Amino acid sequence: GDSVTQMEGPVTLSEEAFLTINCTYTATGYPSLFWYVQYPGEGLQLLLKATKADDKGSNKGFEATYRKETTSFHLEKGSVQVSDSAVYFCALSGGSGGYNKLIFGAGTRLAVHP
Amino acid sequence: SQTIHQWPATLVQPVGSPLSLECTVEGTSNPNLYWYRQAAGRGLQLLFYSVGIGQISSEVPQNLSASRPQDRQFILSSKKLLLSDSGFYLCAWSVRGARGTEAFFGQGTRLTVV
């Protein structure tokens, strides 16, 4: 079945450091890919998405490129801030479960220190 | 605009007691509805999803069940709670059958089984 694999956390960075959180997926067909963010004590919210190969999703300085050849959707940010501290989830839909089934990776906790 | 309501926010229940968590969506029709569980150190696990009234897909065999008695209402239940049912439960909705559609999450219910 479909699955999403993320790098294990926690990831600890100093403010203004470069961030990469790896995400790879296994799915049939052409899934859509997402990054969600969960700030402390809150539900999840969409950060960015891409719906076809080579698309780049971007938002709030974060970006990720849909790489079908490597089945990856790595999240990057050039300069993180303390306010970026949160749990980040990679997700997909549109695999074998169709567009109605949305599955997530395990999540990666990011802690940014001043 | 669409909103999702999930309650209660926190719940402490003894082992063996029943459970009922409710989720309702406003401002949309025929949504997909989802229940996820976020257990400590285990990421975000899809429990159930529904594409219509009375249509429930179960992803993980377990002590829980779900029902959708109305188009915009999704209920998570258990007849007898186990300690392992403790966790953070999230309800979500998305537009049915649309490529790349995002999911919108409720604020979650923190369930502690004692």
Structural commentary:
The complex is a heterodimer of chains A (114) and B (114). With 114 residues, chain A is mainly β. Helix content of chain A is 0%, strand content 55%. In chain A, strands 2, 5, 6, 10, 11 and 12 form a six-stranded mixed β-sheet that branches. In chain A, strands 3-9-8-7 form a four-stranded antiparallel β-sheet, with no helix packed on it. Chain A is globular, with a radius of gyration of 14 Å. Chain B has 114 residues and is mainly beta. Chain B has no helices and eleven strands. Chain B has strands at 3-7, 10-13, 19-26, 31-38, 44-52, 55-58, 65-70, 73-78, 87-95, 104-105, 109-113. Classes of the chains: A mainly beta (114), B mainly beta (114). At the A-B interface, strand 6, strand 10 and strand 11 of A face strand 4, strand 5 and strand 9 of B.
How is the quaternary structure best described? heterodimer
The largest sheet of chain B is: 7 strands, mixed
Q: Cα-atom Rg of chain B, whole angstroms?
A: 14 Å
What's the rounded overall pLDDT mean of chain A?
93
Catalogue the unreliable spans of chain B.
none
* N-end to C-end Cα span of chain A: 41 Å
DSSP strand tally of chain B = 11
| Proportion of beta-strand residues of chain B | over 45%
What is the N-to-C succession of helices and strands of chain A?
EEEEEEEEEEEE
State the shape of chain A: globular
Record the SSE blueprint.
The complex is a heterodimer of chains A (114) and B (114).
Chain A: E1 3-6, E2 11-14, E3 19-21, E4 23-26, E5 32-38, E6 44-50, E7 56-59, E8 62-65, E9 75-77, E10 86-95, E11 98-104, E12 108-113
Parallel strand pairs in A: 2-12
Antiparallel strand pairs in A: 1-4, 3-9, 5-6, 5-10, 7-8, 8-9, 10-11, 10-12
Chain B: E1 3-7, E2 10-13, E3 19-26, E4 31-38, E5 44-52, E6 55-58, E7 65-70, E8 73-78, E9 87-95, E10 104-105, E11 109-113
Parallel strand pairs in B: 2-11
Antiparallel strand pairs in B: 1-3, 3-8, 4-5, 4-9, 5-6, 7-8, 9-10, 9-11
